[in-house]
TrEMBL record:
Topology within the bilayer: Multi-pass membrane protein
Residues in PTS EIIC type-3 domain copies: 1-331
Organism ancestry: Bacteria, Bacillati, Bacillota, Bacilli, Bacillales
Listed PANTHER family: LICHENAN PERMEASE IIC COMPONENT, PTHR33989
Protein localization: Cell membrane
GO cellular component entries: plasma membrane
Main location: membrane
Protein origin, superkingdom: Bacteria
Transmembrane residue ranges: 12-36, 56-76, 97-117, 137-154, 161-179, 204-225, 260-280, 311-331
PROSITE patterns named among the record's database cross-references: PTS_EIIC_TYPE_3
The protein, known as: PTS system, cellobiose-specific IIC component
Length: 346
């Protein structure tokens, strides 16, 4: 994140990334609570790397530190508070010296911030972020209502031609990725996975064919469309749709700004979210295992991999596909009828 932000600001991206890593480690308390097996007494071990904070628990802090350190680094560089070298010095050496003063200032600021926080009731920036931001967002993101609200927002934005998954994901992805990582840790330990709503929940069981679960709509076009436009669109869209790419459908059909197709486009993901949630909560289908299955993986394969090798994950995808297909079908027929009339010049 810091590297890309540095590139965007046209400052030394490598220095931005390195500074964000250094300041994150600086802001992290190297203390681990260890339970003595014989006495069950908990002791605080100083100087130990807190593995939990290097994973999902530290994700929010890492993002915040990356943002703060890069913004501060950019500000200092743009104010020309740097060591300037003669033009005869090689560029690599010049960049290294130019980063020294800004880097020292950034590290000092974060160090002072850490000392201030350590003398408060919070103890560390990780505790502040956890209590104020991460825990409330995790509760919302892990709930059915939070998932429904997110899904509706994604598709309402898409209805206006805005990439809803990118906008909503920018806020909620850290939460869902954190929940996914919790599942991974539990799954690898042989324990029951704790979370139903994760990043994989949406990618594998809701957005089949892309936002709106439009793979079912594409298959509907192939089977039932009578207009030449929709027949051609169906043939062109099926291959990308299998890999969950659907811009051809959303903009080519179009679904965007289409009052007929927007109804199922928003309704289908909501229905699939509710069905998938309760299927997993009631134990009929295995929860996401935490495996980082690429979102472009075709359905059936993705359901099997994402559920930890359980057939129930595949069955749920088939059920969701059927639900999406039959919800889309009447609206597809209405739109197809209009396109046929247009082609006939009526």
């Amino acid at each position: 994140m810091a590297y890309r932000l540095g590139e965007y600001y046209k400052v030394d991206a490598l220095a931005s990334g390195a500074l964000s890593l250094v300041t994150f480690l600086l802001a992290t308390p190297f203390q681990v609570a260890y339970i003595i097996p014989s006495t069950k007494e908990s002791v605080l071990v100083e100087g130990a790397i807190p593995a939990a904070l290097m994973g999902s628990q530290g994700l929010f802090v890492a993002m915040i530190i990356a943002l703060i350190s890069t913004e501060l680094y950019r500000f200092i560089v743009q104010k020309k508070i740097i060591i300037k070298m003669p033009e005869t010095v090689p560029p690599a050496v010049t960049r290294s010296f130019a980063a020294l003063v800004p880097g020292f200032i950034v590290v000092t600021v974060i160090w002072i911030l850490r000392l201030i926080i350590e003398n408060t009731s919070f103890g560390s920036i990780h505790n502040i972020v956890g209590q104020i931001l991460q825990e409330p967002l995790s509760v919302l993101g892990a709930s059915l209502w939070g998932a429904i609200i997110a899904v509706i927002l994604v598709h309402v934005l898409w209805s206006c031609g805005i990439h809803g998954a990118t906008i909503v994901g920018g806020v909620m992805s850290p939460v869902w990725l954190s929940l996914m990582d919790q599942n991974r840790v539990a799954f690898q330990a042989g324990q029951d996975v704790p979370n139903t709503i994760t990043a994989q929940f949406f990618d594998l069981w809701i957005y089949m064919g892309g936002s709106g679960a439009t793979l079912a709509l594409v298959v509907g076009m192939l089977l039932f469309a009578r207009s030449q436009q929709l027949k051609s669109l169906g043939r062109l869209s099926i291959a990308p749709g299998i890999f969950n790419i659907n811009e051809m459908v959303t903009f080519g059909m179009p679904i965007v700004m289409n009052p007929i197709l927007l109804i199922p486009f928003i309704l289908v993901p909501v229905v699939l979210t509710i069905v998938s949630y309760f299927a997993m909560e009631w134990g009929w289908v295995a929860r996401p295992s935490g495996a980082a299955v690429p979102w472009t993986t075709p359905i059936l394969f993705s359901g099997y991999l994402g559920s930890g090798g359980k057939i129930s994950g595949v069955v749920l995808q088939l059920v969701n596909f059927a639900l999406a297909f039959f919800i889309y079908l009447p609206f597809l027929k209405i739109w197809d009828k209009q396109k046929v009339a247009e082609e006939k010049g009526e």
